[in-house]
Amino acid sequence: MVTKTKTLQLVFLNGANKKVNLSLPDAAANLAGTEVKKAMETIANAKAFAQEGVDLYKTPQSASYVERTVTSLFDNTQGQSM
Questions:
Q1: What is the pLDDT of the chain when averaged over all its residues?
Q2: Which domain of life is it from (predicted)?
Q3: What's the count of helices (H) and strands (E) in the chain, helices before strands?
């Protein structure tokens, strides 16, 4: 069985100028770059996320879709009692 997923990955600089990722696994698959950038700017301007006094999502850097394909070779988890 093959399972494919698509995740929107947002990359920001935090208040300490280090890269941090925000992954959105159920994001719409057809977003335009301008829409995503505007949303990232809204997140940054809200200053709602901080850790130990450092803004987590201060400066938008990039956004991309990450696609993942998993091919299951076997799966004994269905109906198995432990």
A1: 93
A2: Bacteria
A3: 1, 5
Whether the Cβ atoms of residue 11 and residue 21 lie closer than 8 Å to each other = yes
Q: How many angstroms separate the most distant Cα atoms in the chain?
A: 50
Name 7's Cβ contacts closer than 8 Å, sequence gap at least 6.
23, 24, 25, 27, 65, 66, 67, 68
Across residues 30-44, what is the average pLDDT? 97
Tell me whether residue 40 is exposed, middle or buried, using C-beta atoms within 10 angstroms of its C-beta: 0 to 12, 13 to 18, 19 or more.
buried
What is residue 77's predicted lDDT score, i.e. its pLDDT? 86
pLDDT at 12 over 90: yes
How far lies 38's CA from each of 25, 44, 69, 72, in Å?
19, 10, 29, 38
Given a cut of 80, is residue 43 above it in pLDDT?
yes
